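Title: Comparing notes on inverse folding

I've been comparing how different people in this forum approach sequence design from structure. To keep things fair, I'm posting one structure and asking everyone to reply with a full sequence. Here's the target:
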């Protein structure tokens, strides 16, 4: 996964086992912690970077286009995403990859690099030397990168986030598994965040909820309440609630009809 700064030609990159959402988020996180938040990124139309799904009803009503998880994270960071319509359109980074596939591979072979981890260790010293040799002076001295947010906030933003419905037994299903929320909450829906470090966070209105993974949903006997299931506080409508008015009017009519003179 490689980056090249449009103003100076500064190169940054890292090896991953595959091209996908989590590697893209991890590489962006590392870039931001090193250089700051860029104004925009120029990407191809790989499914990692662009969603090809049909818009949902909610998206149609809000006049929104479907976005990939990576696009959503960049939007939250206020980074403009520009999609190239052809490989030639992003020729600068393509030429960089061609150079690295020749020069970088040969230098790694000379020092006996044989794994992704050792290759990434090699890049720590390789790219600074490469940039000192090939980086150009920018047309303006101003650095338009914005400061990186706090590491915890960056971890939250650069994660796979999906909304899930909370069932009556305070369980949710995610990625083929069941999770039991173990604290009282009024949440009807929660946000599930899959972080880059492999941890899973379940939150409601920005606050993390306590939970545990379960093999299957709990099935209490009739009249029995399981201790692990927090009780949802009932919400009782007020005496003058609109839902009660038609019923009250009907009862008064019935009483008048059957009243004995």
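Reply #1:
Here's my take.
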């Amino acid at each position: 996964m490689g980056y090249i700064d449009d103003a100076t030609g500064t190169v940054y990159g890292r090896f991953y086992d595959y091209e996908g959402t989590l590697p893209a988020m991890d590489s962006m996180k590392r870039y931001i912690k090193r250089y700051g938040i860029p104004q925009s990124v120029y990407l191809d139309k790989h499914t990692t970077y662009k969603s090809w799904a049909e818009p949902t009803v909610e998206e149609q009503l809000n006049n929104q286009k479907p976005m990939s998880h990576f696009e959503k994270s960049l939007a939250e960071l206020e980074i403009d995403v520009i999609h190239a319509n052809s490989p030639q359109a992003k020729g600068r980074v393509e030429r960089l990859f061609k150079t690295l596939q020749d020069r970088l591979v040969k230098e790694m072979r000379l020092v006996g690099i044989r794994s992704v981890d050792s290759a990434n260790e090699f890049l720590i010293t390789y790219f600074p030397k490469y940039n000192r040799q090939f980086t150009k002076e920018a047309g303006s001295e101003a650095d338009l990168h914005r400061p990186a947010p706090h590491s915890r906030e960056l971890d939250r933003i650069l994660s796979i986030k999906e909304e899930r419905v909370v069932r009556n037994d305070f369980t949710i299903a995610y990625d083929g598994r069941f999770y039991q929320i173990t604290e009282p909450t009024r949440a009807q829906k929660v946000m599930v965040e899959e972080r880059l470090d492999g941890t899973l966070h379940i939150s409601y209105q920005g606050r993390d909820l306590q939970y545990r993974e379960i093999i299957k949903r709990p099935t209490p006997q009739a009249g029995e309440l399981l201790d692990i299931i927090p009780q949802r506080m009932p919400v009782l409508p007020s005496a003058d609630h609109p839902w009660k008015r038609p019923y009250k009017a009907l009862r008064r009519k019935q009483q008048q009809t059957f009243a004995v003179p």
